[in-house]
């Protein structure tokens, strides 16, 4: 099953960097209920709270960094997806990484 | 710079001097910080004139050799602080440092009254731990006439540098 998934990724996936290493994965915006604005407001400033979904072969942990088309994202939630006893791929939900304060 | 921003900036300066990163609240996009950060805002303000309709008297200007008229304004302000950090312990430590800065690091024109803090909570929006607090202060502002032009200069928070 993992070979099939790898073939699908090679054909239909996107190029991403996971913690600096390049690979193929599905990286798409997560669908969510319609909102008035693509951000939340806090006293610290506005926060881009749009979620992105990652499906790939690399194991991810909370806080890991994924880069896609020059933008960095942070893993907020992740799980391994199994078929039988085999981990076929990793699912993760990500948000855009905030710019570092000077 | 208006009076409320002077109060806010004086608190930000006091926090920074104590080693806590501090920013004006609701300004631009939220950044990522290495440690804790405090967002500072003036939540409420109520002004009243002091002296005779704000007139405090005259002071002698050594440089020009003229008397200059002094005016005063006092405001009761509530300063709102939101201390955030990615770790709870960092948030607690920064809050304690912020309390110390408010108690001992404010300029002469800001006198601290009552202070209260909420318990630590998780802020889902920023993905950080949060402690919110309020500090009631009395803010004293001074203004003087500009001398030759007989114009009243801006009110400046007492004890802060004039830019």
Q: Secondary-structure blueprint of this entry?
A:
The complex is a heterodimer of chains A (102) and B (163).
Chain A lengths: L1 H11 L1 E5 L2 E9 L10 E3 L2 E3 L3 E6 L8 E4 L2 E13 L2 E11 L6
Antiparallel strand pairs in A: 1-2, 1-6, 2-5, 3-4, 5-8, 6-7, 7-8
Chain B lengths: L2 H15 L3 E4 L12 E13 L5 E7 L4 E20 L2 H17 L5 E8 L3 E3 L4 E17 L11 E2 L6
Parallel strand pairs in B: 1-2
Antiparallel strand pairs in B: 2-4, 3-4, 4-7, 5-7, 6-7, 7-8
Helix pairs in contact in B: 1-2
Question: Quick summary of this structure?
Answer:
The complex is a heterodimer of chains A (102) and B (163). Chain A has one helix spanning 2-12; strands at 14-18, 21-29, 40-42, 45-47, 51-56, 65-68, 71-83, 86-96. Chain A has 102 residues and is mainly beta.
Task: Describe the protein's architecture and organization.
The complex is a heterodimer of chains A (102) and B (163). In chain A, 11% of the residues lie in helices and 53% in strands. Chain A is mainly beta and 102 residues long. Chain A has one domain (2-31, 48-96): Thrombin, subunit H, CATH 2.40.10. Chain A starts with a helix and ends in a 6-residue tail after the last strand. Chain B has 163 residues and is an alpha+beta fold. Chain B has a single domain (3-157), classed as Phage tail protein-like (STM4215-like). Chain B contains two helices and eight strands. Chain B has helices at 3-17, 88-104; strands spanning 21-24, 37-49, 55-61, 66-85, 110-117, 121-123, 128-144, 156-157. In chain B, helix 1 packs across helix 2 (88-104). The mean pLDDT of chain B is 88. At the A-B interface, strand 3 and strand 4 of A face strand 2 and strand 4 of B.
